Amino acid sequence: MSEKKIMLEARNVDVFYGEFQAIKNIDMKIKEKSVTAFIGPSGCGKSTFLRVLNRMNDYVEGFALRGEIEINGEKIYRKSVKVEELRKKVGMVFQKPNPFPKSIYENVAFGLKIQGITDKTFIEERVISSLKQVALWDEVKDQLKKSALALSGGQQQRLCIARTLAVEPSVILMDEPTSALDPISTSKIEELLHELKKKYTIVIVTHNMQQAARVSDDTAFFYMGELIEFDKTDKIFTNPSMEKTENYITGRFG
Amino acid sequence: MTQLETTLKALKSSTVEMITMAKIQLQKSKEAFLNKDQDLADEIFISEKHLNNFELRIDRDCENIFALHNPVASDLRLVIAILKVISDIERIGDHAEGIASYISELDKKFEKDLFAKLRFTEMYDLALQMLEMLEDAFDREDLSLARKIFKLDKSLNEIKLAAPDVITTYLRNDSEATKQALFLFSTIRKLERVGDLCKNISEQLIFYVEAKVVKHRSEK
Prior knowledge:
The complex is a heterodimer of chains A (254) and B (220).
Chain A: E1 6-17, E2 20-31, E3 35-39, H1 46-52, E4 63-71, E5 74-75, H2 83-89, E6 90-93, H3 104-114, H4 120-133, H5 137-140, H6 153-166, E7 171-175, H7 183-196, E8 201-205, H8 209-215, E9 218-223, E10 226-232, H9 233-238, H10 243-249
Parallel strand pairs in A: 3-8, 3-9, 6-7, 7-8
Antiparallel strand pairs in A: 1-2, 1-4, 4-5, 9-10
Helix pairs in contact in A: 3-4, 3-6, 4-6, 6-7
Chain B: H1 3-35, H2 38-69, H3 73-102, H4 112-118, H5 120-140, H6 143-173, H7 178-210
Helix pairs in contact in B: 1-2, 1-3, 1-5, 2-3, 3-7, 5-6, 5-7, 6-7
């Protein structure tokens, strides 16, 4: 099998919040159409690193970044890069489902409309395909005008993923996307990841190591702002190279 | 120590205990065989049931660990290794029982000369030494000891390979010893299998500690 193209590359990335260095000299290459999991204890820098991948930290007080991050060959911290353009290519799904207080249809169509797209047929097709991709279509097709807030937590999260997919990003970042969901909804999202990676590059932060093991192709273990180990997920969970990784995944940390 | 660590420690101790039980069974089979001691053979039959039950208990413990703890990395390798090891230990127990079952069929004491030529007691002692080494190797996770077992296994194989010629030559002069010779050879084959099983157990220990799969490889 041919080696997959690199979709996302970080080179010597340091991140500071004022005096505090949250990320220390991280190099990482993430392959396209794969799922990469970030694991590590709270405060290890995994969420910070995820958020720098679509410049979510730009307005955090004291935030400073050194080094380079390239997505699909483009250096995303260049001044010429428009953040809103970047976020079309790099979508984000958060820990808690955060649908807008609008209808199901409007939630998915929202990203397209703010891009200035007015072609109703185009929007409708995209809404339907997005809802189908997240396996929500059959559940909501007869109630598209209903408020998104009336959906269950699991359905809301899949709706948020559909909203992200509607603008056809290359990369989807997920920050603990199932931590607020029950096991069945979690399982649906995990199944979805297997489908979505055929088309998208997915990076997921999770505290659930079994989830990382189940859904990802590669796993990165962060500790105190450093990338301790980054390897194939089966290697990380059967025979990690670094003692710190072994201690963390076996629960013997500290 | 985490709950999983405590559970794994107990699992490892049980495995070492099972090796000790198998060693005692083999030791008893040696004494019973050499002395034609039917009472001791009967003890082996009873203990064999304990050994089987012990295997089932460890088997269940492993299943519980998989279901409840989701072990990974070295923890996962330990549970996988133990699952395989206990089946090998149980089979060592089966061989001891198999040897014990010959005792009622033995009609006279063995010829000392045939014994010596077959290196029969030497073979038994080697097999017992391997089990003793396994107890320590497993307990201390001592891979140098585990690797020494591979050498002893080769010695057992050599003794077994030489046995048919020794027996054939002996029977030319004493054809009445045929039945004895058959039992002896069957026992030799069982001891050789015990060596193979000890080797398998050593390979599993290496897999657990070093994450290396050494079975089916000449370089271990």
